[in-house]
Amino acid sequence: MTYTSLSTKYQVVIPKEVRSRLEMKPGQKFVIWEKDGVIYLIPTEKIKDLQGFLKGMDASQFREETDRL
Question: Do the beta carbons of residue 4 and residue 12 sit within 8 Å?
Answer without folding.
Answer: yes
